[in-house]
Every structure is written in C-alpha cells, then in structure tokens.
Amino acid sequence: MEIFKPSCFHLLLLLHLLASILISSVLAIDPYSQALLSFKSDIIIDDSSSLSDWIVPSNSNPSQEIVACSWSGVKCDQNSTTIIGLDLSMKSLGGEISGDQFQLLTSLLDLNLSYNYFSDKFPTGIFNLTNLETLDVSRNNFSGPFPSGISNLHHLVVFDAFSNSFSGPLPAEISQIETLQVLNLAGSYFRGPIPSEFGDFQSLEFIHLAGNYLTGEIPPELGNLKSLTHMEIGYNSYQGGIPVELGNMSQLQYLDIAGANLSGPIPTQLSNLTQLESLFLFRNQLTGLIPWGFRNITTLTSLDLSDNQLTGPIPKSFSVLKNLRLLSLMYNNLNGTVPNGIAMLPQLETLLIWDNFFSGSLPSTLGSYSNLKWVDVSTNNFIGVIPPGICSRGELFKLILFSNIFLGSLSPSLSNCSSLVRLRLEDNAFSGDIPLKFSNLPDISYVDLSRNAFSGGIPLDISQASNLQYFNVSDNPQLGGIVPQGIWSLPLLQNFSASSCNLTGFLPPFQSCKDLSVIELSSNHLSGNISASISNCEFLDKMDLSRNSFTGHLPEVLANLSSLAILDLSHNNFTGSIPSNFANSSALVLLNVSFNNLSGPIPPEKKFSLMGSSAFVGNPELCGPPLENPCSKRPNEIELGIRKTQKFAWVLIVCSVVVVCITVSVVGVLYFRKGSQGNWRMITFSGLPRFTAEDVLKSFYSAEAMETIPPLSGSVWKAVLPTGITVSVKKIEVDAKNMKAVVEFVTLLGNMRQKNLVRLLGFCYNKNLAYVLYDNLPNGNLAAKIRMKSDWVAKYRVVIGIARGLCFLHHDFYPVIPHGDLRASNVVFDENMEPQLAEFGFKFLPNWGNRPFLAPDSRIDTGEYDTAIKEEIQMDIYNFGELILEVLTNGRLKNAGGSVHANPMVTLLREICHENDIGPSDPIREDIKVVVEVALLCTRSRPVTRPSMEDVLKLLSGLKTQTMAKGTI
C-alpha cells in the first residue's frame, strides 16, 4: 500500500484553509459582541454558568446584526443594530471590572449589575456611557472613595448603589445631574456630613442615604427639594435636631430619620407636609411634646415616634387622622389617657404604646370601628376593663396588656376572636371565668393569664387549640377546676403552668406529648397516681408537682426521660421506695421527694449518698445517707459490726480530730483568703437543692470535690457540691456598691430556661466576691471539637442550636439580654450533643451597678431594644456569623468576619462545599449556600445592616436539613 506524504503544496493549501476559517470567524463577530466577550473573560462566574449562552455562532453574519442581541441580559433596538440595555443582575458574577469594555456601548440606556459580587473600585469607564438613563450597581462590594466623573451622565434618571462598601464623603458632584430622580447611596461606609449641595437637585424624587457613617448636622438645604416624595436618611449619627426647613418639602410622602441620634423637639413645621404618608422618627433622643399640628397631615398612614424621650399626652387632634394604620409611641415618657378619638380611626391596625406612664381606661369603643391587628399597652397604669369590641372586626392577632391594673372580666369578644395568636394578660387584676373558647381560636399559640384573680377553672376545650405552645395560668388562687382531658395531646404544647390555682382531680393520661418540656402544677389539690404514660413526654425538661396530694409509687419511667432535669414531687403522699434507676438518669439535676411517705433505703449510688437531706426529709420510713436515719442492719451484719467497732475506734477518733483540724483550717482560709468581707449568702435557682453558702464554699476547697484550685481570675472550674452534683463555677469580683444590682441581675438569669441555654443553678456571694454555679455538661465545648470531622447535619444542628439560644436572649426573654461573649468555648454540649450557650450575660456582672443598661422594662413583643444595648446585640450577631464560618470550615476560618468579604461568595461556597464533601449536584448545596449567606449578612461591618436573630432563625429554619437534623435528636 502506498503511504500518502504531504507535499509543500498541500501544506500551503491547509494553512490557507485555516486562515480563511479564522478570518470568516472573526468577521462573524461584531465589535460590540467582542467587547462583551472580553467583559465575560474578565469576571468570575459561578457554577451556574449564568452567561453560558454568550457564544459566537459558527455561521456567518451577512445582515451585520449584533450577535450579542440574542444573548441573555442584552437588549437591542428593533433592528438589532444597537445595544440599548444590559441586565446582568442576580447572575452570581464576581471579580474586578474596569468598565473599559463598555466604551463601545455608547447607545446604552440601562445598565444593571446589581445582586452580584463585583468588588474593588467602582469602574470609572461607565462614566463614558453618556446616554445612560438607569445605572444600578446595588448589592455588590465596590469599595473605596466614590470616584469623580459621574456628572458626565447628563441623562441619568436613576442611580442605585445600595449596599456596597464605599467609603469617604458622599459625592457632591452628583447633584449636578439635573435629570436625576432616584438616588440610593444607602448601606455603605460613607462618612462626613450630607453635602449641602444635595439641596440643589432639580428633579430628585427619591433619596436614600441610611445605614452609613454620616455625621454632622442635617443640612437645612434639603428643604429645597420641592419634588422629593421619599427621603430615608436615618441609621446614621447626626448632631443636633431636625431642621425646620424639612417642612418645606411639600410633595414629601415618606420621611424616615430613625436611629439617627437626633435631639431636641419635633419641629412643628413638619405639620406642613400635608402629603406625608409615613413618618418614622423612632430610636432617637427627641424631647418635648408631640406636635398637635400633625392633625394637618390627614394622609398619614404610619407614625412611629417610639424609643425617644417625648413627654405629655397623645394629642386629641389625632382623631382626624382617618388614614392612620400604625401608631407606635412605645418607650417614651408619655402620660395622660388615650383619647377616645383614637378608637374612632377607621384604618387603625397597630397600636403600640407600651412602657409609658399612661393611666385611666382604654377607650370603650377600641376595636369597634377599626380593623385592629396588634395592640400592646403593657407596662403602664391602665385601669378598667378590656374594651368589649376589641376584636369585633375579627383581625386581632396580638393583644398584650400585661403589667397594668386592668380588672373585671375579660371582653366577651375574645371568646370568638378566631384570629388571635398571642394573648398576654399577666400581672393585672382580672377576675371571673376565663371566657376563651379554644375551639374558636385555631391559631392561638401563646396565652399568659398568670398573676390575676380568675375563677371557674381552665376551659375544658383547651385541647382543641392545636397550635398552642405556651399556656400559663399560675397564681390565680381562686381558679379551681381540673386539668382538662387531652391537654397533653396538643401537638405543639411546650409549656403548661398552672401552679397555685386550687386545681383538683387527677392528671390526665400523657399521650402524644413529645414536644412538652415544662409542667408546673405545684401548690394545688391534685391527687391520684402519676401515669406511666409520662414516658411519652420524651423531651420533658421540668416537672413540678409539689404540694399536692398525689399517691402511689414513684414511676420508674421518669428516670428514663433523657431530658428531665428538674423533678419536684415534694409535699405529697407518695409511698414505696425510690426507684434505683433514678441514679442512672444523666440529665437529672434536682430530685426533691421530701415530705412524702416513702420508705426503704435511699439508693446507695454516689448521686444520692451525697445529696442534701433537704431533698429527702419528711419521709419517716426513708433511711440511709444523706439522712441521719441509718438503715437497719441484717443480723449477720450486727455481729460483724460489733467485732469491728473496737478495732476502728481509735482510727475513727484520729480521723475525727483530723476532720476538725481541716474544718478549722478551711474556715480560716475562707475567712482570710476571701477577705472577711461579710457573711456569705446563697441563692439557689430551680435545679439546685437549697443548702447553705458554707456547704458550697467547703466543696470548693475540698480536694475530692474540686478539679483545680479556685483561680484568682474569672476563669471556670468544676466542683462537686454536697448533693453530689458536679457544677461549673465562675468566680467574679464585684465592687461592694454594685453587689445588690449584680444579685438582681443574676437572679434574673437564674430564672431563665431554654433548651439551648445552660441552666444557672445558684449564686454564692458576700460583699465583693461571687461564685456563679451552672450546669456542667458532659460532652465538652465547641472549641475542643471544632476541628473534628463532622457531617453537614451535625454542623447544621450546632448552628441552628446557637441561633435558637441567641434568638431567645434577644427576642423572647424579658428583658432583652445580649450574650456578650459568644465564642466557641462558650458553646457546650449536653448528653445528646445538643449545643447550649454558656456564660450569657456574665460579661456585664463585674461592673453591673455602674452601667445597668439592660433596662428591666425592655420589651420583647415589639422587638425593640433599649438604645444602650444595641451595640452588644449587634456584636452577638457578628460573633454568630463568625462562629458559622468556623463550624463550616472545621476551625480554618476563625475570626474571619472582617476578611471573608474580600473574596467572592462563590469562591467561599466552593471551598466550604469541598471541605464538607458536598458535590456540585448535591441538593444540600443549596442549604449550605443559605447558611453561608447568613454568615456573610451577620458579619457585615456596618452593624445596622445586620439581620436580627429572629430573621436569622427564620432563614435557617426553612432548610431541608432541618428535617434531617430532627431525625438525629
């Protein structure tokens, strides 16, 4: 066979063919498309390949149309000969861009780069697109001072640069653009004052500058913006007050200067804004009266003046504001009565006036003429009854009236208020029957009627409230009745409290009570046995049945409840012995069976032999340590005991002498080493038997009870108390003048109970020294485990657990409490590897009396915080974001909140997925992306742009992993 050998002619022919193909390919690409391909090559694209259709066709382009006109995000004119729009928003693009690629696109009218990860300096090449009408670069990470040159965009109508990292002064030059109608420079790091030139805009309708570092006084020149309809300039730190000139913006419909450090009175000139629909001036330091002239703003729908220092009454002139939907005046120093005209506002939906000094009765017609949805008048001095028509329109979902002097029966309209979700009436003087018909309340989730004078029993149809999570009717001594059948079967019920209510009868069977965590029924007249069906309540944390008339044996199944930590059965008529398997309960912290008819020996395990006698006294037939009543010995043991008595007599005498000497030494050490600072006192919380301070102090200095010598610093060590309980101990030195305030604060913390917070057990103190005792959990802390390889579900469980604990501190406890020292070493694990936060609030103890900024009247229902704790709350959120990154990367990204934003999110996500062995097609990848996004939101350097923990928990709770994690608990 003859082998073909190419000649020079053939090679030349082949080269000519390749050149022809290359030339035709180039000719097929127009310069505009070539420029966009150049732009594509300069950026980083995530795995979604959002610009994958930006390719050159293989065929020629005889019509000379622009190839890019068929690409996603590219908009051309009708003939496809000119590119007039480029929309690259939300395509996960990142990297640095110069903007030079856009220079050929001189006909471009709209450019949208929003919701991407572009970084570094703003591309000044964009300023050459002089025909631009809309420029949107929001939600990127452009940084550095804003460059000059934007005034070249003579036709610009909309400029949106929201949520970037710009620094330096605001660009005063932009005011030269006469056509500009929308300006959004919010959510960056601009500093200095608002330029007075911003009052020169000719056509501006919308301005948003909130969430920067702006200072100085608000320029009065802003009053010259006659065409402005929307102004947001809050969440900065200005000096001075609100310029009276702002009252000249006659077209203004929306004004928000919240959280801006404003002082002085509210100018009466704002009453001239007769087109205004929303006015937000909350979280400032405004003083004086609410202007009566606001009656002129009849278009007003939302008025929020909360968290200021306003005084005086609610103006009666507000009765003419017929469009008002939101009236929020909470957390001020207002007084007087609520004008009857407020009840006549037909559009009113939200009335928030808690934490003031209001008095008198609420208007009797409140709710009868408006679609009320949320009413909070708590912590005032209101008297009288609940207005009978409070829910007559059937839309009320939150009614918060606690800590007033309301009396009489509940409003009949509440019995059929099907929209009701949250009802808080505690700490008043209500009486009569509880008229709630739970069969008519399908959405009710939270009911607190405690500390009143109700009678007539708990409504028997409460078992039909399928969404009920929390029910508290404690301290209603005349309530009477029984514990309703089916109460434990409520699918979402977590807390049932009905102590001191004069209840009678038996406990219903415990069925389908898997979510139940707290049962409090102390000081009633309940009787009968505790059903073995209590074993169905697998997450029960606390059960207090003390001071009743229960009989029968102690159910052994109680010891099998893995979460049961507090069990108080004291002052009843239980018989039989203490089940030996109680010693095997790993979660049990407090067992109180005092004053019953128990008999036999206390189980010999160490947990019981060292337990304080107060947990067992009042049982005449009960014997063995720690009681002084020894159990009778068997006959063969008596003889043996006699023979051994003489042999050990001298040994016992010598030991007694040694014990006396050690005791004297310990007392001396306690007296002199502690500084002789007065008598020691002991406060015990729910979860710790009541014993003396001396018992506690001795255990600290016992060689057997203490792992380490008590430190001189504020570090933590372990100690075994006289009850046999191993606890963690924190030593805190406090100025004597502050100790009273510290005791009050620790008592507040000690009564706090939540699944993801470590329980405080006790507080031992003298004039200037304190020991805080809290649960010693068996599985170490996050810092020790952070580098251990864990699957994604385990990591998610840690993250969601920390989030729940923080959310409880920030939003669900009264008052709001920041953690103050959130880090890996303060996240500990219980026997089920459930994360719990330790040392929450401890940071503030040493100097508490000097700065008691956690105001006891801070409110949770509204989500508003005392101004002084904002920084601590926001730092908690930042630290949480850093912890997420640390958990997801097995400790590699530690304290990385300040640096992680420098890299594109897509790169970070790719690295984290790789570290967690998550492939590109794994459905869990989307969940990881959400968690990473939450971490980035929480670690934003501008505190006011960080989400609340309530928002964070909502984001984290909606993931698919949530279901997988539940299966592991």
Automatic annotation (TrEMBL):
All residue ranges annotated as the Protein kinase domain in the record: 702-959
Q: Which Pfam families match?
A: LRR_1, LRR_8, LRRNT_2, PK_Tyr_Ser-Thr
Q: Which residues form the signal peptide?
A: 1-28
Instruction: Tell where it localizes.
Output: Membrane
Indicate the principal place this protein occupies in or around the cell: membrane
Membrane spanning stretches: 648-672
Please list the GO terms describing molecular function.
ATP binding; protein kinase activity
Membrane-topology descriptor: Single-pass type I membrane protein
GO cellular component assignments: membrane
GO terms, biological process: defense response; post-embryonic development; response to other organism
Keywords per UniProt: ATP-binding, Glycoprotein, Leucine-rich repeat, Membrane, Nucleotide-binding, Receptor, Repeat, Signal, Transmembrane, Transmembrane helix
Name this protein carries in UniProt: Protein kinase domain-containing protein
Q: Return the InterPro entries for the record.
A: Kinase-like_dom_sf, Leu-rich_rpt, Leu-rich_rpt_typical-subtyp, LRR_dom_sf, LRR_N_plant-typ, Plant_RL_S/T_kinase, Prot_kinase_dom, Ser-Thr/Tyr_kinase_cat_dom
Q: Which family does it belong to?
A: Belongs to the RLP family.
